[in-house]
Amino acid sequence: MSARNRELLALIPASLLVTAGFAAIFIQRNELLSDVSLTYGGIFLALCFAGHLVIRFTLPHADPYLFPLVAVLACFGLVVVYRIDEDLARDQAQWFVIGLIAFVATIFLLRDFRVLERYRYTIALAGLALLLLPRVPGIGQQVNGAYLGVGVGPISFQPAELGKIAIVIFLAAYLRDTRQVLVQGSRRFLGITIPPFKHLGPLLVVWGAAMFMLVFIRDLGSSLMYFGAFLALIYVATNRLSFVVIGLGMFAAGAYFFASTISHVQDRVDIWLDPFKTYDSTGYQIANGMFAMADGGLFGQGLGAAVLRVPDGGPLIPAPETDMIYAVIVNDLGLVGGLGVIATYMLIAERGFKIATLATDSFSKLLATGLTAVMALQVFVIVGGVTRVIPLTGVTLPFVSYGGSSIVANFILLALLLLISNRARTPS
Amino acid sequence: MNVPIFRLYVVFLVLFAVLIGFTSRWSVFGAQRLRENPDNARVRIEEQRIKRGVIRAANREVLAGSTRLSGGRYGRRYPTGSLFALPVGFDNVRIGRAGLERYYNDALVGRKQELSSLIDSLTKDTQVGDDLQTTLVPRAQELAYDLLQGHQGAVVALGVKDGSVKVLAGTPSFDPDKPEDAKSVFNRATQGLYPPGSTMKTVTATAAIDSGRYQPDSRVDGKNGKVISGTPLNNFGQRDYGDITLTEALTNSVNTVWAEVGVKLGRNRMQEYMDRFGFGEDPPMDYPDDQMTASGPRDVKANKILPMSSDRVDVGRTAIGQGLLLVTPLQMATVAQTIGNGGVRMQPRLVEKIVDPDGRTTDEPLPEEAERVMSEDTAAKVGTMMKSVVREGSGTAAALSGVEVAGKTGTAEINIAQGINDLWFIGFTKDVAVAVIIEREQGQGGTVAAPIAKQVLQALGQ
Question: Cα distance from A204 to chain B (closest Cα, Å)?
Fold first, then answer.
């Protein structure tokens, strides 16, 4: 079977998810099957099919599994968002369309994605500018103490989502140039290979940037995501564990320092250590996320069956459709459901890294590695936050959480991965 | 570069395995503890599908009832509002439960002894909870609550023979329909800590006579300014009483006599009788433990009770309700109840019986003795001394015609310069024991608290 036919066939799980998911929610609500909502599902699937057709004709050799995996996640996300709030699901479907348009546009505009390498500094500057936008007075928005959003009129978006792609492109291009130099001329000290100080420069700069984000934008999650992706890239580029060890040590030291000096970061850490101590205020969200997971148990309450709202009041868990969507999933579908979601991301990561190994030039390899790593790290940061592996910070669960910027950015990321894959697998 | 890419993938597999591990930790392994966490509103939301039992007063008046909400759920309404908010408490889906609503939750949602789980019960058509029949007397509760308006304070009335709680009132109260808006849901009757002042002399008198070292007609020295624990102690109005009987010393509330009696009885004996009266532990009432406070000499900073053997406790001043001693109104009502009941302390009870939806009584707790505190003879003697307080001493304002009232006033100085006191009266008739506290006001226990006690006793048919 050709790769594209495999891709088409693999869309079946997504369509099953949409139909079965909506059916389950309808039965749960004890209403008549509403054809309107089923229509949304139908349109959604038609859009996935359209995406497949674009890939079929423009990227015939691209990896056949990535798109269906993303479709499964997006369909699942739509069902869960619908289960939380019908109006949000309608928005989400619209954002999905815009995301697909961005996906197609990326494929057409960046047929030769290696031009990105040439504009690395422009892209880096644009990325940094994006990250700083939330601090610009008038348009910046502060949510729970972190500056994450930008709002212009009715439209608001989170620049960090797009920023992550820009940063990865820059790092891949930069490291392709310097990887040789970084490895050469090393000294050994205490069994660790120490690179010459001048080559440590970039490491220090990126570390500084991550710390800056931690302090200035107060976004521990994105800081961890970017710095983690950077370490992954520098490791792959140089094959030197010492960089990672030094980098991790520096990040830990910086994070510890700021956690003990900056109250916002300190608060996050305190909530993480004991959310019940501040249950009535700051610990409420994470504590209720834990209650939701406990309520889910092994198999969950059933899709649409878990209690999500205080009767005649607001949501039981604040931000169930964005930050806490993983808790809602575990509440409805149990450990098994959460495991399924994480397994899907594992498969996506596997395909992403596979693409990196197949790519023939360093830039493509590093770019594929970086894009995959940053997305996998985002999953780790948000799911780890909800499950209290690390302090909770407000990043989205890619393709599943409600939110425009997240969907659009991740579709662009997906397009880049498929572009790299298509090039790598094209028979010479 | 392919080897490091593969290793990186393995790192991510490990990270994702950690996520799965933590998800299992909350959803499966630690789930039971999270479900039992009192902050967890989910169980309460589920329990809204149960028609919660009604809580009634002694005359069957409804104090808490269920109303049907949308979606097969039930909400709680309190027709008597703030009047019974302190004893009844509240059941609120957002902020939880308090009072009887909390203590008897299992009965009110119909969860029987035989551990039928919530899930099982939800599968039945509609689960209906059991009703509570309390011992609270609306007429008296209302009167007490009205008399407390304009003051901060509390009134507790107990059945002398059975310990049944007839009045449990305090001000300020709150609206149990909207406990989330309440400034405070503090129950002064069970949690409020006050220096008992001279009402404590009834405990000292009990210890003195029951130990055999004194009789009501024992001669004691009532001179002013006796040195107790190194500091001179004054009588009210600096009055010198000279050579008097123990009964006269109680009637006129002579500080120097009772402090000296306390010192002579010693720390151990005082401790023994205070323990028997129930000091030092939460009262054995059917009410949530964390809404009750133990009485005794207290290290307020460390929030713990000090033993009488502690160097910091002045036994003489404790014997007259000063020093570090802090008590609850419920505790002092129990002291009066015990003396009135021939020396037997009864467990205070708010609920008389539990009735299932078919009208069958599922539980009717018999009045239960907590402890024999003193001999019947002692009780009679101390009772007679207390009757003299109301007949001709500081407590005449509590006297009723046709009914013998025994009592003791208390005036605990809070701010001597401004004349601000905590004002007490405790007492009993043949059937009802009462304690009244008015917080931080001018006047004496005999002028402010005793008249309130009198009216409450009257409303209870005394």
Answer: 22
Closest CA to B387 of B250, B209, B213: B250
Backbone φ and ψ of A282, nearest 5°:
-75, -25
Residues of A in contact with B26 (CB under 8 A): 290, 293-294, 330, 387-388
Which residues neighbour A208 within 8 Å (Cβ) at sequence distance 6 or greater? none
| CB-based contact A294 B94, cutoff 8 Å | no
Q: Are B100 and B53 in contact (CB under 8 A)?
A: no
For residues B129 and B70, give the distance between their C-alpha atoms in angstroms, rounded to a whole number: 19
Nearest to A347 by CA among A409, A399, A412: A399
Tell me the CATH number for domain B139-350+370-460.
Answer: 3.40.710.10
Q: Please state which of the ranges A260-274, A319-333, A345-359, B425-439 shows the lowest mean pLDDT.
A: A260-274
Radius of gyration of chain A measured on its C-alpha atoms: 22
Would you list the domain boundaries of chain A? 3-425
Is the distance from CB of B171 to CB of B148 less than 8 angstroms?
A: yes
* Separation CA B104–CA B349 (nearest Å): 13
Determine whether the interchain pair A365/B1 forms a contact, defined as Cβ–Cβ distance below 8 Å: yes
Helix (H) or strand (E) holding A140: strand A140-143
Site from A307, A308, A341, A390 to mutate, B interface, most B CB atoms within 10 angstroms: A307
Q: How far apart are CA A15 and CA A71, in angstroms?
A: 9
Chain A residue with CA closest to B95: the answer is A280
**From A335, A380, A384, residue closest to B28, measured CB to CB:** A335
Nearest to B408 by CA among B188, B145, B155, B196: B196
DSSP state letters, B194-205:
B--GGGGHHHHH
Q: Extract the tokens encoding B344.
A: 């037997």
**Residue A342: which of B20, B32, B41 has the nearest Cβ?**
B20
β pairing state of B131-134 and B55-56: parallel
Distance from CA of A253 to the nearest CA of B (A): 21
pLDDT at A202 over 80: no
Exposure b/e, A354-375, CB count within 10 A at least 16 = b? bbbbbbeebbbbbbbbbbbbbb
Instruction: Say how many CB pairs under 8 Å bridge A and B.
Output: 134
The mean pLDDT of A254-260, rounded to a whole number, is 81
Asked if B178 is an interface residue toward chain A (Cβ–Cβ < 8 A), one would say no
| Of residues A349, A348, A354, the one with CA closest to residue A425 | A354
List the single residue in B34, B69, B73 with the smallest CB-CB distance to A291: B34
Contact residues for A323 (Cβ-Cβ < 8 A; gap 6+): A285, A382, A385, A386, A392, A394, A395, A396, A401
Are B198 and B227 a contacting pair, CB within 8 Å?
A: no
Model pLDDT, residue B115: 45
pLDDT mean by block of 10 residues, chain B; 462 residues: 90 95 92 84 84 94 91 89 96 89 91 52 66 96 97 97 97 94 94 96 97 95 90 90 94 95 96 97 95 96 94 95 96 98 97 90 91 97 96 94 94 92 97 97 94 96 82
My answer on whether omega of the bond before A68 falls inside 30° of 0, hence cis, is no
Question: Coil, strand, or helix at residue B135?
Answer: coil
Read off the pLDDT band of A42 (50, 70, 90). Answer: confident
